[in-house]
Write a structure and sequence with these properties.
Radius of gyration: 21 Å
Shape: elongated
CATH superfamily of the largest domain: Ribonuclease H-like superfamily/Ribonuclease H
Oligomer: single chain
Order of helices and strands: EEEEHHHEHEHHHEEHH
CATH class of the largest domain: Alpha Beta
Structural class: alpha/beta
Number of domains: 2
Number of helices: 9
CATH architecture of the largest domain: 2-Layer Sandwich
Distance between the termini: 47 Å
Strand content: 15-25%
C-alpha cells in the first residue's frame, strides 16, 4: 500500500472566508521507504496572502502570480493520491482547504480518492498526552532533524512528517523493511522465509530512556512502591 504524507500552505487560516491553497506537497512512501516519487505544486490563489500567513511561509504574492491555478492541477493531484493511505498533521485544517478548492470546481471531497486518511496529530496526542505535539515539537522529541525549517513549506513539512511517522510507528510494522511476507502470486500464496532477514536493532535514545523512567516512576507512585520489577532488580 502506498502511503502519502500531505501538507499545504495557504493564504490564511479560513477556507470558509475565502483563503486559498498556495502550495501543496505529497511525499510517497512504500514499505516504509521513501520513493522520491513526490508531488509538489505552487498554486496561484488568485488573491493575496494575509500578513500573518506571509510571516509563516514566506511565499510572496508576486512569486505565485504565474503559477497554475488549483483547477489546473486538481486532476493530477487526485490521480496521484488515488487509493493511497494519506497522512496529514492536523488533518481538518488541510482537508477543509482541499475540500473547498475541490467544491469550487465541482469535484467531490478529497476523501473520495483516498483509501484512508489519518491525522498524525491525533496519533501523537494519544502517544504523548498533555504534551506539545506540533510538528516542530515532535521533531525535537523524536530526534528528527528540522534545522532547515526556518519557514513553513509544504514539501519540507511533508518530508519531516514522513520521518516523524516512522518514529511514531517503529516497533509496530518496521521489522520487515525490504519485503512483505506471504505475497500472492498467480493466485498462490508465496511464504517468505523470515530467517533470511537481518533485523536492525533500534536502541532507545536519551529522550526515550528518560520518558521510560518517568513512566516507571509514575507507576511506582500509583502502586505505592509495590512494583515487582523494582524488587527483582534489587
Amino acid at each position: 500500500m502506498r502511503q502519502l504524507f500531505l501538507d499545504t500552505e495557504t493564504t490564511g487560516l479560513s477556507a470558509l472566508n475565502g483563503d486559498r491553497i498556495i502550495e501543496i506537497a505529497c511525499v510517497e512512501m512504500v514499505n516504509r521507504k521513501l520513493t522520491n516519487q513526490n508531488l509538489h505544486f505552487y498554486v496561484n490563489p488568485e488573491r493575496d496572502s494575509e500578513e500573518g500567513a506571509l510571516r509563516i511561509h514566506g511565499i510572496s504574492n508576486e512569486f505565485l502570480r504565474d503559477k497554475p491555478k488549483f483547477a489546473e492541477i486538481a486532476e493530477e493531484l487526485l490521480t496521484y493520491c488515488y487509493g493511497a493511505e494519506i497522512f496529514i498533521h492536523n488533518a481538518p485544517f488541510d482537508l477543509g482547504f482541499l475540500n473547498k478548492e475541490l467544491s469550487n470546481i465541482g469535484k467531490p471531497e478529497f476523501k473520495s480518492v483516498a483509501h484512508t486518511i489519518t491525522d498524525t496529530l491525533v496519533m501523537a496526542k494519544e502517544m504523548f498526552p498533555g504534551k506539545r505535539n506540533s510538528l516542530d515539537a515532535l521533531c525535537d522529541r523524536l530526534g528528527v532533524d528540522n534545522s532547515n525549517r526556518s519557514l513553513h513549506g509544504a514539501l519540507l513539512d511533508a518530508e519531516l512528517l514522513s520521518q516523524v511517522y516512522i518514529h511514531l510507528t517503529r516497533g509496530q510494522d518496521a521489522l520487515l523493511t525490504e519485503h512483505e511476507p506471504n505475497q500472492e502470486r498467480n493466485g498462490h500464496i508465496v511464504l517468505t522465509n523470515l530467517e533470511s532477514f537481518q533485523l536492525d536493532v533500534l536502541w532507545a535514545n536519551d529522550i526515550e530512556n528518560s520518558a521510560h523512567e518517568d513512566t516507571l516512576l509514575q507507576i511506582d507512585k500509583a502502586s505505592q512502591d509495590k512494583t515487582l520489577w523494582r524488587k527483582l532488580a534489587t
